[in-house]
Amino acid sequence: MKIVPLIAAFISSLQLCQADQGLWEKNRLTAGQPFSAKVIGVATSWVGYELLLEELREKNPRYCYVNVAITVFLQYTLTTRGASENLLINKPTSKWTILPKGIPVSEFNYSGGGHKLGKKYGDDDLLLKALANKQSAENGGTGGSATRSESKAEGEKKPQPESEGRSR
To answer: What is the pTM of this model?
Structure first.
């Protein structure tokens, strides 16, 4: 049962991350976000989400592209609204879903893909998981949580070859 200590360490690192990083506070994903913003665009990928943020000011707002992914952790890029289409990682298959009025970052929740993004998801929040993985990697750890295949190997047993043969 090597997975139990690994899960305990991962949950502990998630809680530390959430407390230390100031996640989802003051309309910022993290304290490192360049400015308070609202989400005006979201694109889904298999590793996470890409967000387009607009600064919370009426005159000449700045824009920021954010990649929140389990593989690259978190990446902020200042941009213009018009240039945001060129920043999509998975183009041409990925397209922005535009939120015309925008949603303040602190209130944003999204689960349109394989991941959940938002404070309301607690330990299932992709941002929290990504930062925990980053922290683990920086500390020389294995990189975080068990993968889906590792989880299945422990919990759910795959069908045995003879049972597959009977169903054919």
So the answer is: 0.68
